[in-house]
Amino acid sequence: MIESFKLKGVATYKPDGIEVNDLKKINFFYGANGCGKTTATNYLTDTSIEKFNECAVQWQGGQPLKTLVYNKAFREKNFGGSDIAGVFTIGEATTEQVEQIRLKKAEYDNEESQLKSYQKILTQKNGELNTAENEFTEQCWSQYKKYESDFKEALQGSLKKKLFKDKILQFSVSATDKEQVLEYELLIEKGKTLLGERPEVYPEISFNITHSLSIIEQDEIWQKVIVGKSDVNIAAMMDALGSHDWVNQGRKYISNDSCPFCQQDTINDAFKAQLEGYFDDDFLVQTERVSSLKQTYSFNSKEVISSLSKLIENEKHNPNSKLDLEAFIPYFYSLESAIKSNNLGFADKAEKASLQLEVSYTIDALSELKSLIDKANSEIQKHNQLATDFDNETSKFKAQVWQFLADEINDDFKRYFKKARGLEKAVSGLGKTVVERTEKATSLKAELAVLSKNNTSVQPAVDEINRLLKAYGFLNFEIVPSKQLANHYVIQRQDGTLALDTLSEGEVTFITFLYFVQLANGALTQDAVTENRVVVIDDPISSLDSNVLYIVSAIVKQLIKEVKDGSSIKQLLLFTHNVYFHKEASFQGGRSNGCNQTHFWILRKANNITTIQPYNQNNPIESSYELLWREIKEQGNNSCITIQNTMRRILENYFKILGKFSDDDFEAKFQNQQEQQVCRSLLYWINDGSHCLPDDLFIQSQNDTVDIYRNVFKDVFKHSGHIAHYNMMMGIEETQVKMTEEQNAAA
């Protein structure tokens, strides 16, 4: 069935279009000529026509059915030539064969119904899956917007929502270790190197921290008191005076016998021998060691200080420096100070061999400086690794960025994955069921086609059309087999001449409609006889006499009954501009309003724009008599001025014109004189109110009077034995009547 259709951008339909929703099995569309009914039926005839590009139709379960449309185009197509294509129907089969076809058709229809049900659920689940996917896609895209300025270059190639979402899924599914996700700050730092131009290789800081200074500093000689031999005569005196270093220094200035201290000739061979004995070889070795260590330390420390000074100066002017100069320079100054102090102390020791020194150790400062240099070189090595293996590192970095983004949205991913997995499982199961049902429906359709092919003919349709023509007084022409084409027919008069060109417009309309009805119940080919179809009828009573209108109405009613009972016609859409035909065709089962299988619409055109108004199951087309009763039913919303005229017209139409009642007859139905007087006052009141307007100067409240006479109006029907008619027209159900009677009896 058609669930809905939209008409837009064609004929008089407004630019934003009209939508016809909630179509039922039976659908009535009323509209005046020129309001767009034929445009609608032309669209449903062929939705692929270019001018209908902006229009749309929605089928139940997404499965279109064959659509048969009766309108002017149908008449021109099928009765534009001399020959008419034959309509195949099931008409010559035995009762058993017809029953067999009916059962097979019922089985096929049931399978089709089940298939559409599963297809509808499948469509719904696919919709839910698409919605979940779209929501997750937007959540992923929000991550891109959040980090766009940081990682846009790393995300190139996936900057469309769906591609971005797919990439997130790729890394979300493969994420097994949260420790693999890098921190945001580290990614930013790596990005500075990898998201620009290919970086250059930086030289490492070349500086070897020697341990020679520490070895010299830790030598025990600096704390050792170096003096001569103690067993020499002068040793006691030198020890007492503490003049070891003074004497040792003076020895350098002894020449001949003159003393370098008192300038007297007191130096003799014996004294020289004592001096030589005191300052023996061991003393000389130790003092020479002090002098050598001092010189080595002085040389090496100058090299260290010079190298570090150059290093600091270079790094200050290096824009790509990795060395932490803020930490490095204080340690350098500390080292420099310690070395300067040691050089002074070592010089003193060389002059005064007996001196004990407090050495300033440089090992801690050197270790800290080395650590900072190693750290800088480590950073340089990392950078150089990126630079030398740029492509691989860039690829690795991009993966790390995706991993980071996937981790950021991990909670949303888990919710989406759980929901999507359930929906995908449902879609997969439903898909298999749909395939199986489709195969079974196809098989049943093939079996039905074989059964129908063996029991179909075009002759029953011809016989039925001719029977209806004669039954309704069209005696001067009939349909007979064509002499030129097999399974084709022509319209022939009694004298044997072809009648198509000489038929009146009304006759052509009637016979084409009869032909269409047969086609709606059959097909132009044997295989298609039992196919389900949608039938659309546009003004079938155009140019017909008034008496034929009721004939067509009866045929349409029969079609409606077949649709409701379940036939190959699954849905009927009826368009008409004729109020009387609409009223007749829509009157079903003793009621003018529809059932839950019926929907009513009215098409209107104002200012050359077509609009549509739905009325659901309420028939908007009513007789004038029904409208009078509506005035009574809806009196609370209407003016009291017209109520008297309305009551008078109802009583005159029902009792006087149809029932031949007089005013006296009304009165006689009441039991006593008092009630008869009340009835007479009602007649006076409604007659007076029908010919003049009440004067507000004298009548202060009309509502009280109306309520009184409404009860008398009801009593007229009650006492005359026509209360059932009153209840029917007022829409009072039988249960309500019984309840009211019981309440009155109890009171």
- How would you characterize the largest beta sheet? 6 strands, mixed
Task: State the helicity in percent bands.
Answer: 55-70%
Low-confidence spans: pLDDT under 50, at least 5 residues?
Answer: 694-701
Biggest sheet, spatial arrangement of strands: 5-11-12-3-13-14
Helix count equals 25
Distance between the termini: 54 Å
Radius of gyration: 57 Å
The shape, in one word, is elongated
How many individual β-strands?
14
Walk me through what this model shows.
It is a single chain. This protein has 747 residues and is α/β, with parallel strands linked by helices. It has 25 helices and 14 strands. The strands form four sheets. It has a six-stranded mixed beta sheet with strand order 5-11-12-3-13-14, with helices on both faces. A three-stranded antiparallel beta sheet has the order 2-1-4, with helices on one face. Strands 6-10-9 form a three-stranded antiparallel beta sheet. Strand 11, helix 17 and strand 12 form a beta-alpha-beta unit.
Quick gist of this model?
The chain is an alpha/beta fold and 747 residues long. 58% of the residues lie in helices and 10% in strands.
List the helices and strands and how they pair.
Elements: E1 2-7, E2 18-20, E3 26-31, H1 37-45, E4 56-59, E5 66-70, H2 72-78, E6 84-85, E7 89-90, H3 95-151, H4 161-174, H5 184-194, H6 212-217, H7 233-241, H8 244-250, H9 269-278, H10 281-316, H11 325-351, H12 363-388, H13 390-408, H14 410-453, E8 456-457, H15 459-471, E9 477-481, E10 488-493, H16 505-521, E11 533-538, H17 546-565, E12 569-576, H18 579-586, E13 598-606, E14 609-616, H19 624-633, H20 643-658, H21 663-668, H22 673-691, H23 702-719, H24 723-730, H25 734-746
Parallel strand pairs: 3-12, 3-13, 5-11, 11-12
Antiparallel strand pairs: 1-2, 1-4, 6-10, 7-8, 9-10, 13-14
Helix pairs in contact: 3-4, 3-14, 4-13, 5-13, 10-11, 11-12, 12-13, 15-16, 17-18, 19-20, 20-22, 23-24
